[in-house]
């Protein structure tokens, strides 16, 4: 099994595209006329698949850090495309979810309201419930948007941390290589010094031997002259 960064990126991208296709079908409601409960179930499954697709994008973002710089730009383009698709379908999910909730709320309100010409919007209590439900729906949508924004910020911070860690690891590796090179140079210099010291001692021995021979010769010459 190929575990290189490019092959892992391709694998995660393939899984992401598969999730996106099923999400699109569920959000568009293709292939069936779903009832209210069925539609809600489809949206719940779409929400889970959006989380899975988000995880695939995060994995792609991690793997792209290990791709060589020479080919990284094309993978960055594919990553940006995946992020754009994910954001688009997240927005579509929120719109469909809000529309379904609003339709359910209006349907429930219409079933308990008798309209008259004097009171075209129904009973006051029904209007209050409708306004309260709309406010709750808007508040939920706002919270969902805030959560999505926080998730994106956290994802970006995580990617920055990973990039910093990778850069620090490269710096440590470069420092280790430099130290190994310096150690090799020191060993070579040490060997050279040892050789020079050895030759120096050899020269001293030779010089001492020559001096000793000269002294003996001088002694022999003096002895012969004095004898």
TrEMBL record:
Domain of life according to the entry: Eukaryota
GO cellular component: cytosol; endoplasmic reticulum membrane; ER to Golgi transport vesicle membrane; Golgi apparatus; late endosome membrane; SNARE complex
GO molecular function: SNAP receptor activity; SNARE binding
InterPro entries in the cross-refs: SNARE, T_SNARE_dom, v-SNARE_N_sf, Vesicle_trsprt_v-SNARE_N
Organism: Mycena indigotica
Residues in coiled coil: 43-99
SMART domains registered for this protein in UniProt: t_SNARE
T-SNARE coiled-coil homology domain: residues covered: 129-196
Compartments, as annotated in UniProt: Membrane
UniProt topology in membrane: Single-pass type IV membrane protein
Protein name: t-SNARE coiled-coil-like proteiny domain-containing protein
One GO term (biological process): macroautophagy
Assigned protein family: Belongs to the VTI1 family.
Entry keywords, A to Z: Coiled coil, Membrane, Protein transport, Transmembrane, Transmembrane helix, Transport
Pfam families: V-SNARE, V-SNARE_C
Membrane spanning stretches: 205-223
């Amino acid at each position: 099994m190929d575990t290189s960064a490019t092959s892992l990126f391709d694998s995660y991208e393939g899984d992401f595209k598969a999730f996106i296709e099923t999400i699109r079908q569920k959000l568009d409601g293709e292939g069936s006329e779903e009832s209210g409960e069925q539609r809600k179930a489809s949206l719940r499954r779409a929400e889970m698949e959006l989380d899975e697709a988000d995880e695939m994008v995060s994995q792609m973002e991690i793997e792209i850090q290990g791709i060589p710089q020479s080919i990284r730009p094309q993978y960055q383009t594919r990553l940006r495309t995946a992020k754009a698709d994910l954001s688009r379908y997240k927005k579509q999910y929120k719109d469909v979810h809000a529309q379904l909730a609003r339709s359910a709320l209006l349907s429930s309100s219409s079933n308990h309201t008798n309209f008259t010409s004097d009171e075209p919007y129904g009973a006051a209590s029904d209007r209050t419930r409708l306004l309260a439900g709309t406010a709750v729906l808007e508040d939920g949508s706002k919270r969902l948007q805030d959560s999505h924004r926080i998730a994106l910020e956290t994802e970006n911070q995580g990617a920055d941390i990973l990039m910093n860690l990778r850069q620090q690891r490269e710096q440590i590796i470069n420092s280790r290589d430099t130290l190994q090179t310096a150690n090799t140079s020191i060993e070579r210099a040490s060997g050279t010094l040892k050789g020079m010291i050895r030759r120096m001692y050899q020269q001293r021995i030779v010089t001492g031997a020559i001096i000793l021979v000269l002294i003996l010769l001088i002694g022999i010459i003096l002895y012969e002259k004095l004898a």
